[in-house]
Amino acid sequence: MLDQKAEAYLKSCEQEALELLIRLAQIPAPSNREEKRAVFCREWLEENGAQGVYVDQALNVIYPVYSKDQESAKQPLTVYAAHTDVVFPDLAPLPLTVEGNQIRCPGVGDDTACLTALLIAARYVARGLRQGTLKPKDGGVLLVCNSGEEGLGNLKGSREICRAFGEQMREFITLDGQLDRLAVRAVGSKRYQVEIRTQGGHSYGDFGRPNAIARMAALIARLYEIPVPEGAKTTFNVGMISGGTSVNTIAQQAQMLYEFRSESRENLQYMEDHFMELIRQARAREDMELSLTLVGERPCGGDVDEQAQEQLLNRVRQRVRELIGRDPKESAGSTDCNIPLSLGIPSVCAGAYYGGGAHTREEFVEADSLKDGCKLALSLILDHFEVQD
């Protein structure tokens, strides 16, 4: 998988990789507020010899590596990415503890462990280019610490990469998740904010007036009566609700966040149609106002060349199999791959750690799994380089 030099490099920085993970994990990075991690990643790459690193308008940290034999704007590109944002809203340093082999911190696995693996691999590339021991062999490579993968980040980082480089991109590989899993198809989704406003009033003196919270609860109950369509797995969820003023106030305002998902475009349209019909009925009431805002949209897969996609999957499957001794589990997922897949670009999402509790504040990474994650990231990236004597 790797030559002796690359193996020795990974062995020499096992402890440093853990220390890097611990430093990164404590840097707050809620979606759309990734500035601190972006600065850290850019500075770390530059301090470790990466040239040409920059941060784009979407807060992606991009380390471009081009072949000197061609103009950069014309080179076919392969993208390797790992996202910087986490689902947690914290703006203060995230709480981290180490308990034996477990590193515990909100977001430490998703996606900080994978981000660490990408950075460790990027440093090896930077050193090899500087020393003249590595040379791009078939076009360019973009190593990207990208923004906006989680929640209402709405894949902003992946969208910007595809906007800027989509015509050149031949493959897109993102590191996100655990070592024994691959996301090979795109689960699309739509996310809406619904707000209801009523006259409101005093809970005793104005009893009988419409209550925005009660009206929202009735709408939610009807949403949960929608039968999911057959075929591809389709889900829906009310993830947040808020509103009201006090216990003795008839609520004037309530809002919720609602989403539905499927890897089938037809099923997404089915859910959209049923949702919009219930919204239409709610808006027909004269004693309340309802506003609707689309806050997130993730596309399903598009027309991807089947042979090219299978070639990419086989390469990644083989590397994972060599590491863990078995075939990885394959499924559909909502990842940064959604955007390139929707544009017909072969893409796959691979993992770089073992752990548990993703999207909870009890999340943890098994420390000894990070070395295999680094090995997977480096072995995949080095497929695009020739070793120079």
Describe the structure.
The structure is a single chain. This protein is of the alpha+beta class and 389 residues long. The protein has two domains: 4-186 and 300-387, Aminopeptidase, CATH 3.40.630; 188-298, 2-Layer Sandwich (Alpha-Beta Plaits), CATH 3.30.70. It contains ten helices and 20 strands. It has helices at residues 4-12, 14-25, 35-47, 108-131, 156-165, 212-223, 265-283, 306-324, 338-342, 370-381; strands at 54-55, 61-65, 77-83, 97-99, 102-104, 134-136, 140-146, 169-175, 181-186, 188-197, 201-202, 234-243, 249-250, 253-262, 289-298, 329-333, 347-350, 355-356, 364-366, 385-387. The strands form five sheets. It has an eight-stranded mixed β-sheet, with helices on both faces. A four-stranded antiparallel β-sheet has the order 4-5-19-18, with helices on one face. Strands 12-14-10-15 form a four-stranded antiparallel β-sheet, covered by helices on one side. The longest helix is centred in the N-terminal third of the chain and has 24 residues, at 108-131.
Secondary structure layout plus pairing:
Layout (H helix, E strand, L loop, with lengths): L3 H9 L1 H12 L9 H13 L6 E2 L5 E5 L11 E7 L13 E3 L2 E3 L3 H24 L2 E3 L3 E7 L9 H10 L3 E7 L5 E6 L1 E10 L3 E2 L9 H12 L10 E10 L5 E2 L2 E10 L2 H19 L5 E10 L7 H19 L4 E5 L4 H5 L4 E4 L4 E2 L7 E3 L3 H12 L3 E3 L2
Parallel strand pairs: 3-7, 3-8, 8-17, 9-16
Antiparallel strand pairs: 1-2, 2-7, 4-5, 5-19, 6-20, 9-17, 10-14, 10-15, 11-13, 12-14, 18-19
Helix pairs in contact: 1-10, 2-4, 4-10, 8-10
